[in-house]
Amino acid sequence: xxxxxxxxxxxxxxxxxxxxxxxxxxxxxxxxxxxxxxxxxxxxxxxxxxxxxxxxxxxxxxxxxxxxxxxxxxxxxxxxxxxxxxxxxxxxxxxxxxxxxxxxxxxxxxxxxxxxxxxxxxxxxxxxxxxxxxxxxxxxxxxxxxxxxxxxxxxxxxxxxxxxxxxxxxxxxxxxxxxxxxxxxxxxxxxxxxxxxxxxxxxxxxxxxxxxxxxxxxxxxxxxxxxxxxxxxxxxxxxxxxxxxxxxxxxxxxxxxxxxxxxxxxxxxxxxxxxxxxxxxxxxxxxxxxxxxxxxxxxxxxxxxxxxxxxxxxxxxxxxxxxxxxxxxxxxxxxxxxxxxxxxxxxxxxxxxxxxxxxxxxxxxxxxxxxxxxxxxxxxxxxxxxxxxxxxxxxxxxxxxxxxxxxxxxxxxxxxxxxxxxxxxxxxxxxxxxxxxxxx
Length: 440
Ligand code: AMP
Ligand code: ZN
Description:
By secondary structure, the chain is an alpha/beta fold. The chain has helices at about 5-10, 15-30, 35-45, 65-70, 105-120, 140-150, 165-175, 180-195, 200, 215-225, 340-345, 380-385, 390-405, and strands at about 85-90, 100-105, 130, 155, 175-180, 205-210, 230-235, 240-250, 255, 260-265, 280-285, 300-305, 305, 320, 325, 330-335, 335-340, 355-365, 365-375, 410, 425-430.
């Protein structure tokens, strides 16, 4: 078995805990430089000396996405602005975006984790790596880019979209590895077929990295068969840098989460107590090697569990099961995270529509679509009626600008959307390949 950073990847669990304790103490000291944690720690009496064992982390209160929003833009910044060289942020014109800052150290540490992750999935410096992912404020573009370069592959920063061009790049440069969101790959395959090509025979592809959205084992196997490749699950979230948090090794039996860089807890979202290994709960994460913006006990809202037993690859870092759902109402469409409230915020600005709406997620011709249905008001004037087409177009644009995924908008007659008793259900997920878990 080969390793990228053998001394860390196979570190004995006791030594790993000692490293975590040391890094947690350093992280608390750094975090105290931010206004948010300074006040939190002084209220709770937390200092680096509060930590003697990894379990002592439970003395620290959780941090939530709302805390990040409430302290926008600089309340979590723990470094001097001169040291900060990059930010990544979520989209969002309603509400404050979630923004994460990085120093030079942080970018190097992230690139290293990414390179380690790619190596873990069997990717080597001899590979030609095409990153089919949006570059910019999102983390999948630059996050992968730095890791691919750190590992030493030939990188093709292709960006997202335009499948015919993607295929041309694959053929011209003999791409061997691609990174893309799983829901895109069915469409990419169709374009191969339309072009009279068979990716199994006509390309050099052997490895896919897929992530950024929930997908099932069956979906992975389908992708592997269509393209004749091995597809590895990659998990991350911008609050923890982005990609490079947890990655599958070549055994494809769960995702090793890099415990030298993160402390990982899985809690019951109701009692907030840790769940036993093997049971599902909400993933809570702490950064251990981030200078600009340490985050402690961040509630990710993702549902997963620790897998038990050792991995035959020899890595000692624990394995997470694939993400099965979330404890909040966020859903992911075309790789974009969407909270129903973002869509609602836009709809409710339009005087011609009522507050009855629903979001239907549907797989149409192998493409996942977000259909936003909203009822018009029943007292529209003739002029208002005539403007409905314009309003539909405007809503498509505004929702796309907000959530970055283009919706299909349908204005429907009053009373056509079925009412429910009690809490309104806004999102109906009928996508073919997506299985939500309703554990909580
Ligand atoms: P972002 O912060 O935009 O990178 O989105 C992060 C979120 O995407 C996570 O909290 C998960 O909900 C989801 N996500 C990322 N990677 C995966 C994956 N491999 N499987 C399932 N969900 C994922
Ligand atoms: Zn392994």
